[in-house]
Each structure stands twice: as structure tokens, then as C-alpha cells.
Automatic annotation (TrEMBL):
Forms pentamers. Component of the PI(3,5)P2 regulatory complex/PAS complex, at least composed of PIKFYVE, FIG4 and VAC14. VAC14 nucleates the assembly of the complex and serves as a scaffold by pentamerizing into a star-shaped structure, which can bind a single copy each of PIKFYVE and FIG4 and coordinates their activities. Interacts with NOS1. The gene is Vac14. InterPro entries: ARM-like, ARM-type_fold, Vac14, VAC14_Fig4p-bd. It comes from Zosterops hypoxanthus. Keywords: Endoplasmic reticulum, Endosome, Membrane, Microsome, Repeat. GO terms for cellular component: endosome membrane; PAS complex. Gene3D superfamilies: Leucine-rich Repeat Variant. Belongs to the VAC14 family. This is Protein VAC14 homolog. It comes from the Eukaryota. Residues 506-684 form the Vacuolar protein 14 C-terminal Fig4-binding domain. GO terms for biological process: phosphatidylinositol biosynthetic process. Residues 307-328, 438-458 are annotated as: Disordered. Scaffold protein component of the PI(3,5)P2 regulatory complex which regulates both the synthesis and turnover of phosphatidylinositol 3,5-bisphosphate (PtdIns(3,5)P2). Pentamerizes into a star-shaped structure and nucleates the assembly of the complex. The pentamer binds a single copy each of PIKFYVE and FIG4 and coordinates both PIKfyve kinase activity and FIG4 phosphatase activity, being required to maintain normal levels of phosphatidylinositol 3-phosphate (PtdIns(3)P) and phosphatidylinositol 5-phosphate (PtdIns(5)P).
């Protein structure tokens, strides 16, 4: 009948036949009528031949309706009917591709094996048609693909991936342009339980990545950056490794286009750096990502102003928004980064012709770095990477980074208590850079605040706005030495807070104090460090801590190889700077009598050392005091004091040295130290020559110069004053202890 109508070109009758088959049969309530209607519609299509394209809508719609039928036999008949319709129409069905695809995606997950088998035949036919045609409407198809890609059904996922692979293989179809629309869904399918589906998805992603490497200029890197950030944090190792590999390629191919997403990338990458060998592959790729991203930061970023023209990239916010709200880039980014990893809703990244500047989002980066450094559960390698990042940023963008210094200072000081020596070393390098960078010079109204003080106390030591506000001795030590590099306002603040840290954490001082100070002497100017610490300790109210700290500094000064140059400078006292440094150290060293004597031995002030020892008779001699004398005797036998022992040969010109040593001997009880020093003094030649008068002249000219420039009487008075304070403090502590004992007894 239909063939006759076609021969007569009777379109109205053809439509009438199709309408009757559709309404009265295919859409009937009776199942056998529906089967007959489906067979009839297929027969109409075969009879129409090439003209079937004119009636495709009327032919396809009732068949697709039967796809939802409860009867599996009917669904199979519908699949068979549609196969015949599509086979005849071929390319003419492409305008109806979306509804066909939608119906097929449902049949792919059909529980009946016959229906599923029939749908696979129809699916292959449709793929052949799409592959042969150059009229496929990809733009219209992408929204449907983006919707269906989030299906949780394994068969539906397999169906989706197979279509993506087909479309990717067609030369005339550029699916890469629409990759941002489906990339998130692909990564979610990569986590499927089926090995076959995961393998298909890996192949699809691999093909896309190859295409990206071939044509990086046409890739929308920025629109996919946040998708990768999310999946780089996935719990599934395969998803995480694949996303991390993509991130590595994106950073290397796109370069500075990825900078606006740095905070999100670091959020994903940094924790991976502490993975163990079980996730070695992820760790290695994450390390490459981290290093590559770090290289993108350049000195020009410190000079780049938001108002200046720059390289631009496509992005969602407008230029005006990005300028008025610098955090606009990270707002959307952070929402994605901190979102739940179990994302099951489509992520929309619409293409936009609006553009923003590629600027370094320093606020977001510092926030992420601060978070990871503050988290005590983070691994050692991650903390090291964070410190390297901060150091790199202070080197490349010091002007902008110093805006964050006050907020970073407390956590950097707390990091000095880290268990790892390597972490502490990196932390000290960073603190040293902050303390010595010219960008940290205090400007009026922008000086370093005291908000980072780590130990509250009744008296706060404030950072002077200008170095000139320090004591005269401190000023000379910090500024006058021509060999001393210029230190900024944060240097003095660092010294104050470091000493506060030692005061509040005595275990840190005992276990790492010497290590920290020695490293700082390598990284910064040793003279500055000792000068500033001495100046601060001079005003320290906790006298017990001051004595302990002075003892620690003195031990470092006398024994550390890093301070060889400073020891030589103090040993000779040839320059005004060295004499000034000696006076500054001396005033603080008075907190500990024995260290004061050792300083005099180091600087060859033997007469003053003898005068000090004479004062020891007025002091309270405790076990700790005698222990320190014992240690000093041991030090005298070390290579540091080789010159002192050789001067014992010159009895005539060094009588006070011998007297001072005999004074120490008289202080000591009968012990191994007593015997050691006694044996040393027995080696002094011609003991009768030790007798001398007060007018004995020093053997060297520079010693006379030193004596004329240093008021030793005033220094001796200062020593007595400080020791009286210590005596009062000990009596007060003893009184409090006695009262406590009485309360316990009562």
C-alpha cells in the first residue's frame, strides 16, 4: 500500500497510514496491537526508501515511546523497528540524533539480554552513520552527552565511553573543544568498579591527552584546571594518578595560564609529596607538578600591577570583577577545591569571551601554604615543600610577600620546634631571608607589628622603628661595621621573638637552641645576631633565663666553627667595632659570672678577668656555679684557647693571666678539673717571675689602646649590679619555695 502511495506521490495518504499505525496500533493499550504497529512502521520505512527522511519524526516518535514499555518483547520489537527505520534513512536520521541517543542510552542498561543485544546492533549502525557523515551536530549533542555521562549504571557508562571514542576518532569532529564539558564525568567513570569500563575510560582520556599535546594552542586549559584540582584529591589511586599526570602536562604546556589556579593546585599537590612508597607514582608526578608550578613565578610578578596590561586568559569572571575583587578567581576555585570529593553533579564551565589578567594570586597561595604548615598531621616532605615555596616567593616577589609577613611570623617561629632537622633548616633559611631582605625595611605607617609575639608578658619588647632608637652600643654593632650586611626591621623582631620562644620552650633551647643559632650565624651576620641578642637580654626580666641563654651563646661563641671569624675579631679588639661588640656582650654576659670570665679570656682582658674572679668571693657559690667553672677549665684545654696556653710561657707580660687561672684553681674543690688546671700551671716556667706590680705594661700596643677605650671600672660596677639582682632573685625564689613547703606541711 505504501509503495503505491509513493509511486503516486500521495503524501497525505502516506501520512494517514503512518498516523493510523502510530495512534491506533503502536500506541494502543493492547500489547499485540503495539507489536503490529511497530512492524507496520518499519514496513512503511522500507517502502518509503530514500523518501523516509520526509516522515522520520512521525516514524521515530512512537517507536521511541515503546522503548519504555514494561514488556521486554515489545522493547525488543521497538528496537528492531527502529533499526530498520535507521538503516533505510541513514544520514537523514542525524537531525533526530539526540532523541535516538537518549533512547539508546536507556536500552544499553536494559535488564533483558535480548533487548540489550538488539540495542547494540542499533548502536553500531548509528555509529557507522555518524562516522560516514560530515553533518553531525556536535554542538547540539554535547549538552545531552554532558547529562548522560553522570549515569552510575555500568552499561550506560560503557555506552557513553564507546560513543566518546567514536566521536574522537572522526577527523571532522573536534571533540577537544568541548572537553571541559565532559572531563569531570570521564574522571568519575574512571572510578567504576568494572575493569573493562575503567580501561575504556583510560583509553579515552589517553587519546584526549595526546590530542592536547599535539594542539596545545587550541586547548581551553583554564576551563579544565579546577576539574583536575578536584580529581587530584580523589581517594581512588587511579583517578588521582591520572588527574595528576594531566595536571603535570597542563602546567608544562599552558605555563603561566595556570597561575590563577595556583592555590587550588597546591591544595591538591602538597599533601601528595608526603606519600609513602605505596603511592610512589603519585608522589613523583606531584613533585614534578610542584616544581613546574614554582618555576612559573617570576620577579615580574612583584612589579605587576592589576591596572597594567598583561597576558590574558579566558575565564568566567569579567575583567571588571577581577580588578575590583582580586579574590574573584579564588572564590570559585576554592568552592571547587574544598568541595566534597564525591561529586555527582555536572560541573559547568561555559566558554567565555571575557578575559582576565594572568596575575599571581598571592593571597590565595599564602593562605594554602599557611594552612598546610599549621596542620600538624601533614608529613615532613609537605612541610619542607611549603617552606621552599615561601622562600621562593620571598625571593621572586619580596615586595608583595612582606604584606603577609606579620601573619606568617608566628607559624614560622612555631615551626622551629619541628621534629625534623631538615624542616628547621628550611625554616631558618626562610626567616633569614625575611630578616635580611631589603624589601622588609620599615616604612612609615607600615612597620612590622608586634602581633606575632609568641609569649605574652608584663613587659613587651617593641621593635624600634629605626635602628637609631637602640642603645648606642647596639647601633654601632648593627650599622657601623662595614662588613655587616644591612638588616631590615624584621631582623630585630626576629631576634626578640626567637628569644621569647626559647624562654617559653626551655626544651627547645636545650635540644635545638645551639643548632638554631649556629645555622643563623651561617645564614646571617654572626656579629649582628650576637649584638642584638645581647642587647635584648640586657633588658630581660627573667634573670634565670637570661643566665641560661648567655651560657648557651657563650658556648656557641667559644666552640662553633661557624664563629671562627667573630672569635678572631674579639680576640684582637683592634677595631672600634670589635671593642664596641665586646662591651655589648660583656654587659649581657654579666648575667653569668663564669661566662663573663671566659669572654675576658677570649678577648685577652686578663687583668679584668682577674678582677672579676676576685669578686667571686662575694657571690653565692652553688653546685651549678662550680660546674660552670669546671667546664671553663675543660675549655681552656681545647684548641680554641691554644693562644692562651702559649701566653703562659711569657710570664713577665701575662702575670694577670696566671693570677686569674690560679684564682679559678682556688675556687675549685679537689676534683679532676682542679688536677687538670693544677698540672697546667705547674708547667709555667720560673714561678718566681709571677710577682708583679700594678704598673706592669702590656706587651702589645693594641692592648693599651683597648684599655684606653674601654672603661673597665664601669664594666666591673655593672657586673656587681647584675649579680646583686641575681642574688635578690634567688632569695625571692627561695622564700617562695619555703612558703610553699610550709603550706604543704600545714
Amino acid at each position: 500500500l505504501v509503495r503505491e502511495f509513493v509511486a503516486q506521490n500521495n503524501t497525505s495518504q502516506i501520512k494517514h497510514v503512518i498516523q493510523i499505525l502510530s495512534q491506533e496500533f503502536a500506541l494502543s493499550q493492547h500489547p499485540h496491537s503495539r507489536k503490529g504497529g511497530l512492524i507496520g512502521l518499519a514496513a512503511c520505512s522500507i517502502a518509503l526508501g530514500k523518501d523516509s527522511g520526509l516522515y522520520l519524526k512521525e516514524l521515530i516518535e512512537p517507536v521511541l515511546t515503546c522503548f519504555n514499555d514494561a514488556d521486554s518483547r515489545l522493547r525488543y520489537y521497538a528496537c528492531e523497528a527502529l533499526y530498520n527505520i535507521v538503516k533505510v534513512a541513514r544520514g537523514s536520521v542525524l537531525p533526530h540524533f539526540n532523541v535516538l541517543f537518549d533512547g539508546l542510552s536507556k536500552l544499553a542498561a536494559d535488564p533483558d539480554p535480548n533487548v540489550k543485544s538488539g540495542s547494540e546492533l542499533l548502536d553500531r549502525l548509528l555509529k557507522d552513520i555518524v562516522t560516514e557523515s560530515n553533518q553531525f551536530d556536535l554542538v547540539g549533542f554535547i549538552p545531552l552527552l554532558r547529562e548522560r555521562i553522570y549515569s552510575n549504571n555500568q552499561y550506560a557508562r560503557q555506552f557513553i565511553i564507546s560513543w566518546i571514542l567514536v566521536l574522537e576518532s572522526v577527523p571532522d569532529i573536534n571533540l577537544l573543544d568541548y572537553l571541559p564539558e565532559i572531563l569531570d564525568g570521564l574522571f568519575q567513570i574512571l572510578g567504576d568498579n568494572s575493569k573493562e569500563i575503567r580501561k575504556m575510560c583510560e583509553v579515552a582520556l589517553g587519546e584526549f591527552l595526546k590530542e592536547i599535546k599535539k594542539n596545545p594552542s587550541s586547548v581551553k586549559f583554564a576551563e579544565m584546571a579546577n576539574i583536575l584540582v578536584i580529581h587530584c584529591q580523589a581517594a581512588d589511586d587511579v583517578i588521582q594518578l591520572t588527574a595528576m599526570c594531566w595536571m603535570r602536562e597542563f602546567i608544562q604546556l599552558a605555563g603561566r595560564v595556570m597561575l590563577p589556579y595556583s592555590s587550588g593546585i597546591l591544595t591538591a599537590v602538597l599533601p601528595c609529596l608526603s606519600y609513602d612508597d605505596r603511592k610512589k607514582n603519585i608522589k613523583e608526578v606531584a613533585n614534578v607538578c610542584n616544581q613546574s608550578l614554582m618555576k612559573l613565578v617570576i620577579p615580574e610578578d612583584d612589579e605587576m600591577d592589576e591596572a597594567k596590561p598583561s597576558v590574558t586568559i579566558p575565564a568566567e569572571p569579567s575583567s571588571e570583577e577581577s580588578l575590583s575583587k582580586p579574590e574573584s578567581v579564588t572564590t570559585g576555585e576554592s568552592q571547587l577545591v574544598w568541595a566534597s570529593r564525591a561529586v555527582r553533579k555536572p560541573l559547568f564551565f561555559p566558554c567565555s569571551c571575557e578575559r582576565i589578567q594572568v596575575t599571581l594570586n598571592l593571597d590565595g597561595i599564602v593562605q594554602v601554604l599557611d594552612y598546610h604548615l599549621s596542620d600538624t598531621s601533614i608529613g615532613m616532605m609537605t612541610r619542607i615543600a611549603v617552606l621552599k615555596w615561601l622562600y621562593h616567593l620571598y625571593i621572586k616577589t619580596p615586595r608583595k610577600m612582606f604584606r603577609h609577613t606579620d601573619s606568617l611570623f608566628p607559624i614560622l617561629l612555631r615551626t622551629l620546634s619541628d621534629e625534623s632537622d631538615e624542616v628547621i633548616l628550611k625554616d631558618l633559611e626562610l626567616l633569614a631571608e625575611i630578616a635580611s631582605s631589603p624589601a622588609g625595611q620599615t616604612e612609615e605607617g607600615h612597620g612590622p607589628s608586634d602581633g606575632s609575639d609568641v609569649r605574652p608578658g608584663p613587659v613587651e619588647l617593641h621593635v624600634p622603628a629605626r635602628a637609631g632608637q637602640l642603645s648606642s652600643s647596639s647601633t654601632k654593632g648593627l650599622e657601623c661595621s662595614p662588613s655587616t650586611p644591612t638588616m631590615n626591621s624584621y631582623f630585630y623582631k626576629f631576634m626578640i621573638n626567637l628569644l621569647k620562644r626559647f624562654s617559653s620552650e626551655r626544651k627547645l633551647l636545650e635540644s635545638r637552641g645551639a643548632f638554631i643559632i649556629r645555622q643563623l650565624c651561617l645564614l646571617l651576620n654572626a656579629e649582628n645576631i650576637f649584638h642584638s641578642m645581647a642587647d635584648i637580654l640586657l633588658r630581660e626580666e627573667d634573670l634565670k633565663f637570661a643566665s641560661t641563654m648567655v651560657h648557651t651563646l657563650n658556648t656557641i661563641l667559644l666552640t662553633s666553627s661557624e664563629l671562627f671569624q667573630l672569635r678572631n675579631q674579639l680576640k684582637d679588639l683592634k677595631t672600634p667595632e670589635s671593642r664596641n661588640l665586646f662591651c655589648c656582650l660583656y654587659r649581657s654576659w654579666c648575667h653569668n659570672p663564669v661566662t663573663t670570665v671566659s669572654l675576658c679570656f677570649l678577648t685577652q682582658n686578663y687583668k679584668h678577668a682577674y678582677d672579676l674572679i676576685q669578686k667571686f668571693g662575694d657571690l653565692e657559690v652553688t653546685v651549678d656555679f662550680l660546674t660552670e667553672v669546671d667546664k671553663l677549665v675543660q675549655l681552656i684545654e681545647c684548641p680554641i684557647f691554644t693562644y692562651l696556653r702559649l701566653q703562659l710561657l711569657d710570664v713577665k707580660n701575662n702575670p694577670y693571666l696566671i693570677k686569674a687561672l690560679y684564682g679559678l684553681l682556688m675556687l675549685l674543690p679537689q676534683s679532676s678539673a682542679f688536677e687538670l688546671l693544677s698540672h697546667r700551671l705547674q708547667c709555667v716556667p720560673n714561678p718566681e717571675l709571677m710577682q708583679t706590680t700594678d704598673n706592669t705594661k702590656p706587651s702589645t700596643g693594641f692592648k693599651r689602646t683597648a684599655a684606653s677605650n674601654i672603661d673597665y671600672t664601669e664594666l666591673l660596677q655593672h657586673f656587681e649590679k647584675v649579680q646583686n639582682k641575681h642574688l635578690e632573685a634567688r632569695h625571692q625564689r627561695a622564700g617562695r619555695a619555703e612558703q610553699l613547703d610550709r603550706r604543704v606541711v600545714l
